[in-house]
Amino acid sequence: MPNVVIVGAQWGDEGKGKIIDFLTEESDIVVRAQGGNNAGHTVIVDGEKHVLHLIPSGILWPDKTCVIGNGVVMDPVSLVGEIDGLRARGRAITPANLLLSNRAHLALPIHRALDRFREARLGAAKLGTTGRGIGPAYADKAHRGGLRLADLMVPKDFAAKFEPKVEETNELLATVGLEQLHFADECEKLLEAGEKLAPHVTDTAVFIHRQLKAGKSLLFEGAQGSHLDVDFGTYPFVTSSSTIAGGACTGAGVGPHAIDRVIGVCKAYTTRVGSGPFPTENEGFSDKLHALGREFGATTGRPRGCGWLDLVLLRYSAIISGMDELAVTNLDGLDDFDTIPVCVAYELDGQRLETPPVRIEDWERVTPIFEDWAGWRQDISSVRRWQDLPANAQAYLDRLSEALELPIRMAGVGPDRLQTLVR
Ligand code: IMP
């Protein structure tokens, strides 16, 4: 199996977890290289539903090694909760199957408080973050004031570095009357988590390097999506990490030549959670999917906005990650239509745009140009072979593949492992 990077091609929640879980069988090591517990991957195995935030979904395979790389911002207490949850379900989590980068920055209670503070200050213009402190944690890293997992491994030094950060945050919180953080309590919780994580902490870049030398294969599990990327997304309505394929290199410490293949994942339609532009959003379609119990966020439970497939987004995602292939999930979400609108370009001030604008003000003004593609009006969730998909569902995928000049080899018709069809 080649070394593969999986990236979300839209605004996150593309169903990457399911594709990753499917591909894990053929790889040895699964790596998370960016983001934090803002991510939520839902994987259903043998009817049992697992929601993972930081730990790669490869953990559900007994003989795979999972790595959380340096590019991730890690909330230690939440991570311990995730480990305990998996253990309670009989999954073994050991230093042999879960490794944590000593260079990963910590997402701390101060960052969560600052996340809330900044969102409150923005009022109606808020970013709609997950509230997990992701932006402030990455800002602290870039600002050179962050604390890393390696720091948490030395309790006395950690406490000495953490205390002034809590004081500084409390001063800020006091200006708007927000609840103060209690240093001693927070520090104790973090150190307790640190102690539990200690056996897993190592220089993961060196580990990965040795594994590559030994001929093992890597699967990079992207979190969020290309249009939430801090450079290429709908800035400022983005997350704070590099969600595109290149993020795998910096977030894990591997050279670009180590990556053989980039697979983009998109839904057969589009969703977005949080604030920001969404040209193809459609209220009727959102209501329809929500009524079916679909499209509620795995991390925050928020209903996701839903809309039609947007080729402008996908075209750009393919460019910025150098995609070799596209996997399409949730095809069954379109089961109930005679025709399906698909956005092939935007119009802005009389101009046709094939790729997205830059400024958020222009993003807010674009009008989607739709084509109607034929629907199949048939429940496809029990289909198990590509050739058994209705002809119009196959044609939908073929037309998409042609429009993007990317092969589509995998399609999802439901959340279970068995509901991934391969051409
Ligand atoms: P943050 O990452 O919590 O700072 O949130 C910034 C934006 O990214 C918000 O619009 C979030 O809803 C969105 N976001 C963050 N993580 C995910 C994800 O895993 N799926 C979908 N949206 C996400």
Secondary structure layout:
Layout: E1 4-8, H1 16-24, E2 29-32, E3 41-45, E4 48-52, E5 65-68, E6 73-74, H2 76-88, E7 98-101, E8 105-106, H3 109-122, H4 134-142, H5 149-152, H6 155-175, H7 183-197, E9 201-202, H8 204-213, E10 218-221, H9 246-252, E11 261-267, E12 270-272, H10 283-291, E13 305-307, E14 309-310, H11 311-321, E15 325-329, E16 339-348, E17 351-353, H12 360-363, E18 367-374, H13 391-404, E19 408-412, E20 420-422
Helix pairs in contact: 2-7, 3-4, 3-6, 6-7
Inosinic acid is lined by residues 11-13, 38-40, 127-130, 132, 134-135, 223-224, 228, 237, 239-240, 273-275.
How would you sum up this structure, described in words?
A ten-stranded mixed beta sheet has the order 9-7-5-2-10-1-11-15-19-20, with helices on both faces. Strands 14, 16, 17 and 18 form a four-stranded mixed beta sheet that branches. β19 and β20 (420-422) form a beta hairpin. The longest helix has 21 residues, at 155-175. It has helices at residues 16-24, 76-88, 109-122, 134-142, 149-152, 155-175, 183-197, 204-213, 246-252, 283-291, 311-321, 360-363, 391-404, and strands spanning 4-8, 29-32, 41-45, 48-52, 65-68, 73-74, 98-101, 105-106, 201-202, 218-221, 261-267, 270-272, 305-307, 309-310, 325-329, 339-348, 351-353, 367-374, 408-412, 420-422. Helix content is 33%, strand content 20%. It is built from 13 helices and 20 strands. The structure holds inosinic acid. Inosinic acid is lined by residues 11-13, 38-40, 127-130, 132, 134-135, 223-224, 228, 237, 239-240, 273-275. Residues 11-13, 38-40, 127-130, 132, 134-135, 223-224, 228, 237, 239-240, 273-275 line the site of inosinic acid.
